[in-house]
# Entry
Amino acid sequence: MLWLYISLGVAGIAIAGWLAWRHHLRLRQVAEQLESLRVMVADDVARFGEQYRELAGSDSADYESAGRAYSVALEASRDLQNPAAVGAITRQLADAQYDVLRHTSTIAGRPVPERRLPCFFNPQHGPSLTDVLWTEPGRGTRKLPACADDAARITAGTEPLIRYAERSGHRVPYWDAGPAFAPYGAGYFSRAESSHQFLHTNFGGQDNLEYGDPRHFTGPSPYPLEPRN
# Structure
């Protein structure tokens, strides 16, 4: 009978050790994902800040609105503790990008462009210019908002300049980086007319599939692309 108690004790210790190890791995993964998000967001904020500082100072409403949104995003990015908070930052950046576009158009004497979604391939590129059909290898064809440069690349048969994220030591497109990265895209594309459908189509969540599941990317995308004002 003693051997049975010993065996149960050993098994219990082994199970407890395995659970502790799994918990440790999970905590490490969460920490790595958060750090990767911090780097991405800090880079986006810094890049916009450089573009904003290159503008000629102005008291226009659009210029000031862009500055306020940038300040909010910068402050939030400095104390990022939760992946869910990323969406609020990238939404501020998307608003600031459009404010800058309005400002520069007005200064140049051009009509103010309609508000469009950011470039899907890399939201750092700012508001999209047009919609393009893009076939991702193994994942079907989608209609996506693209900036002028990426639209030209796709038309010419070359790859767009994709925004990558670090996941488990590998660089992957940000839309395929896993659930922790979902708020990054959700913020940038929150102003889509059907943002829920847009995000589910391009970032996962349809049919109870996990974010980034390849089955999300088969067939054409049905979402409307026109953003609301």
